[in-house]
Amino acid sequence: MRPVPRTFEALPADGSVIVCPDGDELRRLIEDNVRRRAGRPVVLAGREWVRSTDAMVVITGHQPEFFHPGIWIKSVVAAEVAARFGGRAEFLLVDSDSAEGVELSWPVQSESGLTLGRAALPAARGQPLEAIERRSQAEWQEWFRAVPDSILADDESPLPDFVRAFLNGGPDAGYVDRWKAGMSAVDDRVGVPSLRARPVSRLGDAGESDAWWWFVAHCLLESERCAATYNAALRAYRRRYGIQGERHPMPDLAVGGGRCELPFWGLLGGAVRSRLAIATRAEDGLELWAGDARVGEVSKSELRRTPLAGVRSLSGDCTLRARALALTAFTRMTRCDVFIHGLGGAAYDEIADDWMRTFFGVEPPGIVMATATLRLELPVRSVGAWRPDAARRTLRDRRYNPQRLPLVSANAAELLAERSAAIHESEHLRQFLPTDRAARRAAFDRIRAANLALQRHLDPAITVLDERQIERVEAHNRVAERRDWFVALHRVERLRRLVDNALALLAG
In which order are the strands placed within the sheet that holds 338-341? Predict the structure, then answer.
């Protein structure tokens, strides 16, 4: 199947939805993925992985944060695709990602215009979302008090439903469980299926499959080739799109000093994430490091023989979590037939595609990309008769090219002629007497004087344009035109229309 085009951007139109591929092409992608899975099992740590179910599985996912409708719509699409093709849909809850920078924001009206209100999650630096310490209902109530009552009590939006469910999560509920309850309440209010959430932190738990342990063991046993193919896929992506450096869209895995970095995070003490590296000891030994801390060791033969016990022996008190590319590669190879990405994930998974081919020997299954644009119903301001960008051009023309603007006086004709003559003289001097600086300066002063004189003949609405006024309107509009407001801030009626737009695309 053709890859999702990297040139896709979120559509600017309010209420717009993208699903790619859709219609008959989506059906062909699913059939091709299912056929490929049945025809060639994935080999991990020397073992063939065969899924225990024949049912078609659709997975999407994201971090448990206050995400916008363009991310939320992925779950709507996943549920509909599963229903149409007789499968089931799941939500991969990336609770292993950093909690730093996660916040709930809302619009605030001030004298100068709209500004942002913010409430950041109470998390320590470097702490993953799964490790945010438990807080009581009263403590979370206090956190939500930062949000204005007019927004919290807006029954036309599902935000009150989210907050009630979040607060009623029970005394032992952590942030992630409260968030899940809140998002289920949002889905119920809008009238869409709420997908079963599978936290990344629970991969490999009792009752889960062995595939996770085989996947980790595979990367550990062949750490040098793992890093080499991973970095080669990154370099190929950067060449393809002209990206400079070695840190974008994500850093290379570090190799050197007797250690080889792995595409996993390590949680020491269950709190702070560290980069993991493997070191080979003697002929058969492996040693795991989390940052500068030595974690544990195991023999390669033990790791091959019993991956689960071997990984646990090696990692000791350090919990392993897959980083972004490793997580989607594992999920796409072992857990689903269709993975639904957003815009960014769909682009970066070209890297995972190359890595799956070169390291795991797997032809990657096709993905689906879904996103949407929905804005809050906030007023967009203008600067007089102009939008801010047009006002800026007008302001620049007022200073340097007043002849381009409407002149309201017939007496301006003489000044226009004087300006043209001065420009002609300046061009002549530049071409034939470039070293006569005094003459060139005099010609420049004539042009500037003509421009200043012409400004007195402009429409009064232009003469009162002010840089600070434009800046205030631009700041207001940046808030008003955002597309990344939390989905629960939008009116239920508009969310339902967005769902209808997505379902219409899937129907073809």
Answer: 16-20, 367-373, 338-341, 57-62, 88-93, 196-199
- Number of CB atoms found within 10 A of residue 392's CB: 17
- 59 Cβ partners below 8 Å, 6+ apart? 78, 89, 90, 91, 92, 331, 335, 336, 338, 339, 340
At residue 198, what is the residue type? Answer: R
In this predicted model, what pLDDT tens digit does every residue of 312-335 receive, in sequence order?
A: 999 988 889 999 999 999 999 999
Q: In 3-state terms, what secondary structure has residue 410?
A: coil
By DSSP bridging, strand 367-373 and strand 338-341 are parallel
Reported as a pLDDT band with limits 50, 70 and 90, residue 208 is: low
Residues 6 or more apart whose Cβ sits within 8 Å of residue 178: 140, 165, 166, 167, 169
Whole-model pTM: value is 0.89
Return the DSSP state at 358. Answer: I
Q: Are 359 and 230 in contact (CB under 8 A)?
A: yes
Q: Does a cis peptide bond (omega within 30 degrees of 0) precede residue 434?
A: no
Q: Return the residue matching tokens 């702070």.
A: 272
The Cβ of residue 351 has, within 10 Å, a number of other Cβ atoms equal to 24
Q: Which two tokens stand for residue 237?
A: 């992506």
DSSP H or E run through 47? strand 47-49
Three-state SS for 77?
A: helix
Cis ω on the peptide bond leading into residue 21 (within 30° of 0)?
yes
* Residue 371: exposure state from Cβ atoms within 10 A (0-12, 13-18, ≥19): buried
